[in-house]
Design goal:
Elements (H helix, E strand, L loop, with lengths): L1 E4 L12 E3 L2 H8 L5 E3 L2 H32 L3 E5 L7 E6 L1 H10 L9 E2 L4 E3 L1 E10 L2 E10 L2 H8 L7 H5 L24
Parallel strand pairs: 4-9
Antiparallel strand pairs: 1-2, 1-3, 5-7, 6-8, 8-9
């Protein structure tokens, strides 16, 4: 299906371009969200008459997104979740949870603006990309921890999944001899 793009769509084209896309992509995504029009003579004339207002609205949205990006860039957010001793979460942190963490600090973004390919499944510091506009992308740091105290220690660079943090043992001091005595009864004997 041929469509006229009403705004820049990543990996597809710029505003005003006529591109060929699959029918389902056009019917289910581009047309309902107002990102494109079917390519026919009436819609081409309509686009040309509305081009100035569309470009002005796009510039306005981009300006607003740039202002939010300046505030968000490099900012860190804490998400507290239950996790095992090894740092594996009992659930996961998804885009919805990131949106909630941002909303708690007064930022309103949609789930579709969070670029998270797979859910976060372990504690630690994670970089997350946010697409605020088709031309504006910003990265924030997500601090996933078991408690706020743990999040503070993590943000200072302390590893919370090492043996030292979990068991109070220095990993470098661990030797096999400390756990296994080769001269003990039955060790090394063939039965």
């Amino acid at each position: 299906m041929q469509v006229i793009l009403l705004e820049r769509v990543p990996k597809l084209g710029q505003m005003g371009e006529t591109v060929k896309v699959r029918d389902g992509f056009a019917r289910n995504y581009l047309l309902p969200l107002g990102k494109a029009l079917r390519s026919n003579e009436a819609n081409k004339k309509r686009f040309e008459s509305e081009r100035a207002t569309l470009e002005a609205r796009n510039l306005e949205r981009k300006g607003e997104a740039l202002k939010v990006a300046e505030v968000l860039d490099g900012k860190s957010f804490v998400v507290v979740r239950a996790a095992g001793e090894t740092g594996q979460l009992y659930g996961s942190v998804a885009a919805r949870d990131i949106v909630d963490a941002l909303a708690a600090d007064g930022f309103t973004i949609g789930r579709n603006q969070v670029d998270l390919n797979t859910p976060i499944k372990e504690i630690g510091l994670h970089k997350v990309s946010l697409h605020l506009h088709a031309e504006v992308e910003v990265s924030v740091q997500l601090n996933v921890a078991r408690s706020t105290e743990e999040a503070e220690r993590q943000s200072q660079g302390e590893s919370l999944t090492s043996a030292d943090a979990i068991y109070g043992v220095d990993e470098d001091a661990l030797r096999p001899e400390d756990f296994f005595d080769p001269e003990a009864d039955g060790a090394g004997e063939d039965e």
